[in-house]
Amino acid sequence: MKKLSTFIILCITLNSFGQEKLSLNECYSLVNKNYPLAKQYEMFARQNTLDKEIIKTGKLPKLDFDAQATYQSDVIELPIAIPGVTIASPNKDQYKATISVNQLVYDGGLINASTKVKEVALKAQQKNIEVNLYQLKKEVNQLYFSIILLQEKRALLNAKKKQLVSKLKEVKAGIKFGVLLPTSDKVLEAELLKIEQQYTEIDQNKISLIKTLSSLIDEDISLNVSLENPTILPSVDTEIKRPELDLFQLQKEQINASEQLIAKKNAPKLMGFATGGYGNPGLNMLDNAFQTYYVVGLKLNWNIFDWSARKKEQKSLKITKEIINNQQEIFTLNTNIELDQQQTEIAKITTFIESDKTIIELRKKILKSAESQLKNGVITSSAYITELTNLYEAENNLSTHKIELLLAKTNYKTTKGN
C-alpha cells in the first residue's frame, strides 16, 4: 500500500509541473542551454577577457619604486693631492630612493600576436564545449524514443483492453444462455488484470525515463507529456558536418597564431625610460650631500642569437599540426564506418517492418476466425486470448520497429551532423 501511495504521489507531482508537449529539437536546445557544461562558455569568455587585459598592460607605462641604504668597506679616493683643493671622499654609508618609468615604444607586434593567440584559444575552448554537448544528443535520442515507445505500447494495450472488455460482454452473454462454459469469462477477466499490471510497469518505466531526461535537459517534464515523432527528411548531402571538424580547424588556427607569436619573440624591442632619484650621494659621487637627480633615455633590446630555440619551437608546432591532421583523419574514418553501420541497421529494420505488416494481416484473419469459433463455443477463451495476444505482439513488434527506425535515422543524422 505504501509503494502504491508513493507511486500515486510521484505521478501527481510529475503531472503538476512541466510542459504537455515536447519535441526532440526542444530537448536539444534545452541540453545546450541548461546542461552544467554550458556554463563554461561564459567562464572561458570572462577568463579570456582578463588574460587579454593582462597582455595589453605591456603597452602601458611601468612605474617602479626602489629604495636602499648601504654601508661599504671602502670608497673611491683620488690617488693625488691637489694643492689648495680639498676633495672629500664619498661616505661609506649611502642612501638612495628612485622612481623609474619604463614605456614600451616598439615590440615588433609581440603583444598583438599574444592577444591573437588568446582570441583563437577562446574559440577553440568554446567549440570543445559544443563538441561535448553535441555528444549528449545520442543520449537524448535514446531517452526520447524510449519514452515514445512506451507511449505506443500503452496505446496498443488500450486497444487490447477495449477488445477484451467488448469480448467479455459477449462471453458473459454466452454463459448466460448456456452456449459457453461457466468459467469462460474468468479467463478474460484474468487477462484484463494482467493488462493492468502491464500498465503499471509501463508507467513506472516511463517515470524513470522522464526523470532521467528531465535531469539531462534540466526542465520539469509532465508524466502525461506528449512527445512528438520527429520528421526525418532524407538528406542528399554526404558531407560530414560535425562540430569536431570545426574544432580541428580552430586548433590549426591556434597553432598558426602561435607560430606568429614565436616569430615576434626575437623582434627588436625599443623602450623609453626615465628615472628620478633622491640620495646621498647623487649622480656626483664626490658630493657628500642629499640631492635630487634624474636620468632619461632609450633602450634597445634585440636577441640576435637564440641557439635555434625559435626554429625548434616551430618544428614542434608543425608536429602538433600533423597530429591534429591525423586525429581529423581518424575521426572522419570512424564516423564513416559508423554511418555505414547505421545505414545497414536502417535497411534491416525497414525489412522487418514490411514483414511485420504481413504478419499482422495474417494474425487479424486468424483472430477473426477465433472470434467466430469462441462465439459458437468451438474454442475456449484461453485459445482466443492466445490468438489475441499473438496479434498484440505482432502489432507491438511493428510499433517497436517503427520507433527503432526513427531512432536509427535520428542517430544517423546526429552522427552525420546535418
TrEMBL record:
<dbReference type="GO" id="GO:0009279">
    <property type="term" value="C:cell outer membrane"/>
</dbReference>
<dbReference type="GO" id="GO:1990281">
    <property type="term" value="C:efflux pump complex"/>
</dbReference>
<keyword id="KW-1134">Transmembrane beta strand</keyword>
<comment type="similarity">
    <text>Belongs to the outer membrane factor (OMF) (TC 1.B.17) family.</text>
</comment>
<dbReference type="Pfam" id="PF02321">
    <property type="entry name" value="OEP"/>
</dbReference>
<protein>
    <submittedName>
        <fullName>Transporter</fullName>
    </submittedName>
</protein>
<keyword id="KW-0472">Membrane</keyword>
<dbReference type="InterPro" id="IPR003423">
    <property type="entry name" value="OMP_efflux"/>
</dbReference>
<keyword id="KW-0998">Cell outer membrane</keyword>
<dbReference type="GO" id="GO:0015562">
    <property type="term" value="F:efflux transmembrane transporter activity"/>
</dbReference>
<keyword id="KW-0813">Transport</keyword>
<dbReference type="InterPro" id="IPR051906">
    <property type="entry name" value="TolC-like"/>
</dbReference>
<dbReference type="GO" id="GO:0015288">
    <property type="term" value="F:porin activity"/>
</dbReference>
<keyword id="KW-0812">Transmembrane</keyword>
